[in-house]
Amino acid sequence: MTGRTLPEHALPSWRRAVLKVGSNLLAADGGGLTTRYAQALAAFIAASHRAGREVVLVSSGAVAAGRALLRERAALGPELAARQALAALGQAPMIALWQSLSERPVAQVLLTHDDLRNRRRYLNARATLRELLMLGVLPVVNENDTVAVDELKLGDNDNLAAIVAALVDADLLLIASDVDALYNTDPRRDPAAEPIGHVPQLTPAVIAMAGGSGTGVGTGGMRTKLQAAEKAAAAGIPTALFSGREAVTVQTLEEGHLRGTLIDVAGSRMQARKYWLRHAPAGSGRISVDAGAVRALAGGRASLLPGGILDVVGEFHRGDLVEIVDVNDRPVARGLCQYGAAEVRRLMGRHSRDIASVLGYSYGAEIVHRDDLATLIGAETAGESEA
């Protein structure tokens, strides 16, 4: 792909991004891990931090690092079990590499798709990542390959990065690899292949341009990157594909420009999330709120706090989508509840500061956080709903 002129254009405005770094950027030619390409990426993360932005890093490389540590040994056993053992062995050096390059403390977060499919664990993972970002820590997320059988077979940290982007409400997904852009044909086989700078919308024709994995070190290819971009787009998050091997390309990111491919989304991130909250199937549980809570929620920027709750109808669990209604049972909002029905009944009418003393623990001051809430009425109709 060397010698081709890559399109350059402005990155979307962002405050929080997920950066995925592929194995091919971290694995040395002779085995083990190298900082050769990671240094420029770490410098970009540091520059982003200094600009007041937040970055969550999704890093591959654990299996490659583990393999290098045992390269003198014979196979450890069945292929999957061996790769899982190598992943466990390689986690420590992979985290150590990023800590050696980071100006901030680094925290390891291991996830599986099961963690993110289960609503309770999903909320716990999100709360942990948000707290780490608030503390000024660089979270380094990786697939928990030691136990994630299906995910390890797919080798798909690209898709994990997209899920994490939605998990933390990121504004942008950045995918750094040894591929510098999406091409209209396979650039490894076609010298006339042309890079595509901007994809307004992922279509079957665009996805058909993708090939498989390029080398034996990484396990993802352009197809998984487009699958990840499709997941991110569904959450209203654009994706930038670029080469992490080109220092100038990485430095250009600091200036707000991308040399690579930008995969756009229709509408904003908030529009996509709010649409889902408004239309996704909700359980049978309802939370009734007072007039003050109705007015606050109608503004679209408030969370539901326990003090404004009058009643809880039906049963639901932490992480379930619930209806929020006024005293006349008219819909006010819908949202993902951070507490189960039994817990909300104990907390209703209380102050947020009392949550820990009442329950003996706390998942946060909000019953439904504003990021997980979609209002169904406007401020101008809030008074009518209360009448």
UniProtKB/TrEMBL annotation:
SUPFAM superfamilies: Carbamate kinase-like, PUA domain-like. InterPro entries: AceGlu_kinase-like_sf, Asp/Glu/Uridylate_kinase, Glu/AcGlu_kinase, Glu_5kinase, Glu_5kinase/COase_Synthase, Glutamate_5-kinase_CS, PUA, PUA-like_sf. Substrate binds at residues 60, 145, 157. Catalyzes the transfer of a phosphate group to glutamate to form L-glutamate 5-phosphate. PANTHER family: GLUTAMATE 5-KINASE, ISOPENTENYL PHOSPHATE KINASE. It catalyses: L-glutamate + ATP = L-glutamyl 5-phosphate + ADP. Keywords: Amino-acid biosynthesis, ATP-binding, Cytoplasm, Kinase, Nucleotide-binding, Proline biosynthesis, Transferase. Its main location: cytoplasm. This is Glutamate 5-kinase. The gene is proB. It is found in: Cytoplasm. GO terms for molecular function: glutamate 5-kinase activity. Pathway: Amino-acid biosynthesis; L-proline biosynthesis; L-glutamate 5-semialdehyde from L-glutamate: step 1/2. ATP binds at residues 20, 177-178, 219-225. Coiled coil: none annotated. Residues 285-368 form the PUA domain. Pfam families: AA_kinase (PF00696), PUA (PF01472). Belongs to the glutamate 5-kinase family. Its EC number is 2.7.2.11.
